[in-house]
């Protein structure tokens, strides 16, 4: 009996030691990082910058895989259904945590139950823009006056129903009492030509999509949805400076894994993201792409989600948006 106990104890100790070594060695092979949106978009570009920084710090390839569709739900669901070993991760924008649950009648995953938020990773502000050629206003105040006087109201374009661009636009125009018509496109790349041809009057969408066209002088930036002026466009006022208080709304993304991700793996990944966000060279890459690096603990990521959930729910309800 004594020998049997010793044997079992030895086997248990060996198993625990093996588990500890595996966690300490993480990662020992390439990591898949799923981006739930198409290649070339803001989330994809910023995810690839994050992947480069993580690769340097983790010592393993971090391979970005685009799995888009259903407002990002397809890619995030792939992460949720993966093994909780840290080798399949993803970047999930705010919509996948705090908008889609109120937008879709059913979801393939539960964002609270089925996912582990490891760290906030980056954020992108929305910028309000109009065409230089077709809209005479050069300030948000003048635009609102022009919009109220415009017969039939204004036409605004977004990159889709239920996006932060859609919700921000509806909130802005309902607060101002401006009649508006929403025209959803598949992406900002389709909204921009419509604005430049005069078919769409206004957009408020990710800076990453509009920075180039603003810098070319073909569009006027009327306001930024940030608490402070954006580093790469200090000439653009915040929405509060432009006359719209309580309008700080950024589209942030979180590094995620499936539920059950071991705490040592979470800590390793969170530390890597924090190191990425503290690197001045990588910070500049994010800014040039229209975003900003973020980093938190897993608890910090959950805290922001809990804090903003009521706000995004209210915005979805206000917009009347549904994806049936």
TrEMBL record:
Keywords: Signal
Family membership: Belongs to the UPF0065 (bug) family.
Name of the molecule in the record: Tripartite tricarboxylate transporter substrate binding protein
Membrane-spanning ranges: none
Stored SUPFAM superfamilies: Periplasmic binding protein-like II (SSF53850)
Organism from which the protein derives: Teichococcus wenyumeiae
Signal peptide (UniProt feature, chain positions): 1-22
Gene3D superfamilies xrefs: Bordetella uptake gene, domain 1, Periplasmic binding protein-like II
PANTHER family reported for this sequence: BLR1237 PROTEIN, TRICARBOXYLATE-BINDING PROTEIN
Pfam families reported for this sequence: TctC (PF03401)
């Amino acid at each position: 009996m004594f020998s049997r106990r010793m044997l079992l104890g030895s086997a248990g100790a060996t198993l625990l030691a093996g588990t500890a070594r595996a966690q300490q060695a993480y990662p020992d092979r390439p990591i898949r990082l799923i981006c739930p949106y198409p290649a070339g978009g803001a989330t994809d570009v910023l995810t690839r910058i994050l992947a480069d920084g993580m690769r340097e710090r983790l010592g393993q390839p971090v391979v970005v895989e685009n799995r888009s569709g259903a407002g990002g739900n397809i890619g995030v669901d792939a992460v949720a259904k993966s093994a909780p070993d840290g080798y399949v991760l993803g970047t999930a924008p705010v919509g996948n945590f705090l908008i889609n649950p109120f937008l879709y009648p059913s979801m393939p995953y539960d964002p609270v139950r089925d996912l582990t938020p490891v760290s906030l990773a980056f954020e992108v502000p929305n910028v309000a823009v109009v065409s230089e050629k077709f809209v005479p206003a050069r300030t948000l105040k003048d635009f609102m006056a022009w919009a109220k006087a415009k017969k039939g109201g204004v036409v605004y374009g977004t990159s889709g129903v239920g996006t932060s661009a859609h919700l921000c636009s509806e909130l802005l125009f309902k607060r101002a009492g401006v009649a508006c018509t929403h025209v959803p496109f598949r992406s900002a790349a389709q909204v921009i030509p419509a604005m430049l041809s005069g078919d769409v009057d206004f957009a408020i969408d990710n800076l990453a999509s509009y920075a180039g066209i603003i810098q070319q002088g073909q569009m006027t930036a009327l306001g930024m949805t940030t608490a402070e002026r954006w580093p790469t466009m200090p000439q653009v006022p915040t929405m509060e400076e432009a006359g719209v208080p309580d309008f700080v709304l950024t589209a942030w993304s979180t590094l995620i894994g499936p539920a059950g991700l071991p705490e040592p793996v979470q800590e390793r990944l969170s530390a890597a993201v924090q190191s990425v966000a503290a690197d001045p060279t990588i910070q500049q890459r994010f800014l040039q792409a229209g975003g900003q690096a973020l980093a938190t603990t897993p608890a910090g990521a959950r805290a922001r989600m809990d804090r903003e959930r009521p706000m995004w729910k209210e915005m979805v309800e206000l917009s009347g948006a549904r994806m049936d």
